[in-house]
């Protein structure tokens, strides 16, 4: 493990895996620090979930991708329909896995 000081200038430190540092990861204390440094304001979670739902509703992203992202990024924002989709997705993955 290596202690890094966040590159955004907030001065916070955190322990990251040395292997990650060598890969060029672990430069920032958090994702919002990284977004700030890169000049993008972090979008609110509600806004991102709404964008995702819009993209899915318009057919720009697949059911699988939508369910995957919801489950991994915003599990607390999932409604019954999202949970159902994710469940179908899991069945699909296990069927194609072997
Ligand atoms: Zn920072």
- Helix count? 5
- Number of self-contained structural domains: 2
Describe the biggest sheet?
A: 2 strands, antiparallel
**Count the strands?**
2
Query: Would you tell me the structural class of the helices and strands?
Result: mainly alpha
> What portion of residues is helical?
40-55%
Q: What features would you describe in this structure?
A:
- This protein is mostly helical.
- It folds into two domains: 2-37, no CATH class; 45-96, no CATH class.
- The protein is 54% helix and 8% strand.
- The chain has five helices and two strands, in the order E-E-H-H-H-H-H.
- It has helices at residues 18-22, 31-37, 45-57, 63-73, 80-96, and strands at residues 2-5, 13-16.
- A hairpin with a 7-residue loop joins strand 1 (2-5) and strand 2.
- Helix 4 crosses helix 5.
- The termini are far apart.
């Amino acid at each position: 493990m290596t202690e890094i000081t966040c590159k955004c200038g907030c001065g916070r430190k955190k322990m990251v895996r040395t292997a990650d540092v060598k890969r060029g990861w672990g430069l920032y204390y958090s994702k919002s620090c990284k977004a700030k440094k890169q000049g993008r304001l972090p979008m609110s979670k509600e806004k991102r979930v709404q964008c995702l739902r819009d993209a899915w509703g318009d057919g720009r992203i697949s059911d699988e991708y939508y369910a995957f992202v919801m489950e991994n990024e915003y599990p607390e924002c999932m409604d019954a329909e999202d949970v159902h989709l994710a469940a179908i997705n899991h069945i699909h993955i296990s069927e194609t896995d072997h």
